[in-house]
Design a protein that fits this description.
alpha/beta; 2 domains; 310 residues; 6-stranded mixed β-sheet; 28% helix; Purple Acid Phosphatase, chain A, domain 2
């Protein structure tokens, strides 16, 4: 047992350390949490690398190299999310022959956590996509399509919530206007709702109602346009509770994420990694004691057979 003099000495030392900011428990309480977000978009059925024909993308892409890179990153990082922003299908003979089955099986084997739908994901019709749903081992999310009176009714949720290392992450999807991009026969009775209003509503529900620490939008609206067409940048500007937009559709190769100020002047990160599965987007976030998200590092990695995670 401590005698009185020893007790006073030890407690005085502790008080001094605390006052000086050197008390060891202070470092423990401020321990930083980390989350790595990996993402793709507009892969367009590219299961194999682009041919070595001297073209700009020669030898790049392919699911084998992507899967190896994802496995390596997961081995080096404890908490990893893997997401896709649509147009998984159409673009190679694999889709023409098998109507999406090998693409979705490959994504499921790679352990995707969620995706949204792009316009080309309707190319085999609503019924064709519905036939693929049993192959998905992860949710397909679209908040602004109403699938009432279609074979996708009640099968495509607007959002999901994933927990990683004590971080609660809300994820929702937004799809582009199908009229003019997809034949009426393909999208059938699918109704398109205003993505701005839907994004406001769903992101508020996730942040305020569900108390999510981070809200991610998987968007197939496109990065930006010269017209007033709704884009990722407009969604970011007009909303309040979105932290990150992972985009697709415009095949935009962003060498680093874009930062857009939202309606209350907070930063929204936007990223997109081109098309054809030739890049894997990587965003490393840190979270403080209040679980506030901050982008710590970003790196879009070119995918080829020599790819490494360095």
């Amino acid at each position: 047992m401590l005698n009185r003099r020893s007790f006073i000495k030890k407690t005085s030392l502790g008080a001094g350390l605390l006052a000086a900011g050197a008390f060891p428990f202070d470092g423990f309480a401020s321990e930083t949490k980390r989350l790595t977000i990996l993402h793709t978009n507009d892969v367009h059925s590219r299961l194999e690398p682009f041919p070595n024909d001297g073209g700009k993308l020669a030898g790049m892409g392919g699911v084998a190299a992507r899967a190896a890179l994802i496995s390596q990153i997961r081995a080096e990082n404890e908490h990893v999310l893997l997401l896709d922003a649509g147009d998984m299908l159409q673009g190679t003979p694999y889709f023409n022959m098998y109507k999406g089955e090998p693409e979705i099986k490959a994504m499921s084997m790679m352990g995707y956590d969620a995706c949204t739908m792009g316009n080309h994901d309707f190319d085999a019709g609503v019924e064709g996509f519905a036939r693929l749903l049993p192959l998905f081992q992860f949710p397909v999310l679209v908040a602004n399509y109403d699938f009432t009176d279609t074979s996708l009714e009640n099968k495509i949720p607007p959002n999901t919530i994933i927990k990683k290392g004590g971080i609660k992450i809300g994820i929702f999807g937004l799809g582009i206007e199908l009229e003019g991009l997809v034949s009426r026969a393909a999208f059938g009775n699918t109704k398109y709702n205003d993505p701005i209003q839907v994004a406001k509503s769903v992101s508020e529900k996730l942040k305020k109602g569900e108390k999510c620490d981070m809200v991610i939008c998987l968007s197939h609206l496109g990065y930006e346009y010269e017209t007033n067409k709704i884009s990722d940048k407009i969604i970011a500007k007009e909303t309040k509770y979105i932290d990150l937009i992972i985009g697709g559709h415009t095949h935009t190769f962003l060498n680093s994420p874009a930062i857009q100020r939202n309606i209350i002047d907070r930063e929204v990160v936007i990223n997109q990694v081109g098309w054809g599965g030739v890049r894997l987007g990587r965003l490393d976030y840190t979270f403080d004691r209040k679980n506030s998200a901050k982008l710590h590092n970003s790196n879009s990695v070119n995918i080829n057979k020599e790819t490494s995670a360095d």
